[in-house]
Specification:
This protein is α/β, with parallel strands linked by helices. It has a domain of about 160 residues: Rossmann fold (3-Layer(aba) Sandwich). It is built from 6 helices and 10 strands. The chain has a 6-stranded mixed β-sheet. Strand 7, helix 6 and strand 8 form a beta-alpha-beta unit. Helix 3 packs across helix 4, helix 3 packs parallel to helix 5 and helix 5 packs parallel to helix 6. The protein starts with 5 loop residues before the first strand and ends in an 8-residue tail after the last strand.
Length: about 240
């Protein structure tokens, strides 16, 4: 796939679903957004505003009811399930709020497992995994399992794992929700650094308003509607 500086484009994206009571919920309402490689887009808004729905659509996990989703130039609407899965493996890294690491695997094995899904051989994958763990500050913890790591260290493994496929788009959902202030600040700085280091377009959902100034652009969601730009000091 050809590389483009704009890793994500959402055009007139609407997402609706039934609420189980013969009503329709509009989670996203005619949303337009683009994310450029090498930049962080901060996404703010109250709970239930549509932030997670936007990430799910951008990650190609949920097809929109209407509108266009382009990931690194590929029109997701024209892809079947297998093609969307391949696109996620090749172009999208996802950092969930909870790291969801496999308990039996060491830090380096967590990353190698992702590489195996891409058909990569163990040797080169382990080398790259070691490099990424070193980059996120875990060179001394590569052989430790999740229960041996702090919450901040587990989130660093999560970030390294998301970068394992050299994505063009990094989607990050509330990465500091379970961390204290110091660990949160460290994780936010790391995300800023890897965005520039890997020239990835990062979309960052966070409730920590004080960290939004780390973003290049801040947008705000309310009731499924996106407004941009938003003031970084808005609650």
């Amino acid at each position: 796939m050809n590389s483009t500086t704009t890793a994500l484009i959402l055009e007139n994206v609407t997402l609706e679903y039934p609420d189980g009571q013969n009503n329709t919920v509009r989670a996203l309402d005619n949303v337009g957004l683009s994310a450029v490689r090498g930049t962080v887009t901060g996404l703010a808004g109250p709970s239930g505003s549509g932030k997670s729905s936007l990430l799910a659509v951008a990650a190609t996990l949920i097809p929109p009811t209407s509108g266009t989703v382009l990931v690194n130039g590929a029109d997701v609407g024209g892809l079947d399930d297998a093609e969307r899965a391949r696109l996620r493996r090749e172009e999208i890294g996802i950092v969930f709020q909870q790291p969801n690491l496999l308990p039996a695997l060491t830090a380096v094995e967590q990353l190698v497992a992702v590489a195996h899904l891409r058909g990569e051989r163990t040797g080169p994958a382990a080398d790259r995994a070691g490099e990424l763990l070193n980059l996120v500050g875990l060179d001394g913890q590569v052989n430790q399992r999740p229960h041996q790591l702090s919450g901040g260290q587990r989130q660093r493994v999560n970030i390294a794992r998301a970068l394992m496929g050299n994505p063009s788009l990094l989607l990050v959902d509330e990465p500091t929700a379970a961390l204290d202030h110091d660990r949160s600040a460290s994780i936010m700085k790391l995300l800023r650094d890897v965005t520039e280091e890997f020239n990835v377009a990062t979309i960052l959902v966070t409730h920590d308003v004080e960290f939004l100034p780390l973003a290049d652009v801040v947008v705000r969601m309310r009731d499924g509607v996106l407004t941009l730009p938003a003031a970084v000091d808005q609650p």
